[in-house]
Design goal:
With 156 residues, the protein is α/β, with parallel strands linked by helices. The chain is built from three helices and seven strands. It has helices spanning 8-38, 46-70, 124-129, and strands spanning 4-6, 72-74, 90-95, 101-107, 118-120, 137-142, 145-155. A five-stranded mixed sheet has the order 5-4-3-7-6.
């Protein structure tokens, strides 16, 4: 796995998720397996199969998070350059054709969460904005076509 860019907030979020999966969730699944075994023959036991599948899913997610955290490069939010758009920056843009305005933070793909206005640097809009400054017009090649945005502000 290559480097994963995370904010300090993102690292904490993944560390909390890992702790939950390794303690609370593992215990819940162990209890499900124990209860399912009590039903008798496990060869035809749907509850047992479901619990074992959930256990495998949980262990897979644990390993994915551990690997991600090992390869994490933490974005130093104090050193974000507000002259150009970069990962970690908060960007306010206006769509040229509709005049709609949006504000979001550019983050690494592991932290992307469009509902909370956090878009990936690898997304069409994120890629288009990276490296550009205030008042520049950029074109984002989206699945719906090319969209032009004006960068209104860049902050930390």
């Amino acid at each position: 796995m290559s480097e994963v860019r995370l904010t300090q907030e993102g690292v904490l979020k993944y560390e909390e998720r890992l702790e939950y999966l390794m303690t609370v969730r593992r215990a819940e699944i162990a209890e499900q397996i124990k209860v399912a075994r009590a039903f008798g023959d496990i060869s035809e036991n749907a509850e047992y199969d479901a619990a074992k599948t959930e256990q495998a899913r949980n262990e897979h997610e644990i390993e994915e998070i551990k690997l991600m955290l090992r390869n994490a490069v933490i974005i130093d939010e104090d050193s974000i350059d507000t002259n150009v758009v970069s990962i970690g920056a908060i960007v306010r843009i206006r769509r040229v054709d509709t005049k709609d305005e949006f504000e979001f933070q550019i983050v690494g793909s592991a932290e992307a969460d469009p509902e909370h206005m956090r878009i990936s640097d690898a997304s069409p809009v994120g890629k288009a904005l990276i490296g550009h400054g205030v008042l520049e017009i950029v074109e984002a090649l989206t699945p719906g076509g090319t969209i032009r945005y004006e960068i209104l502000s860049i902050s930390k």
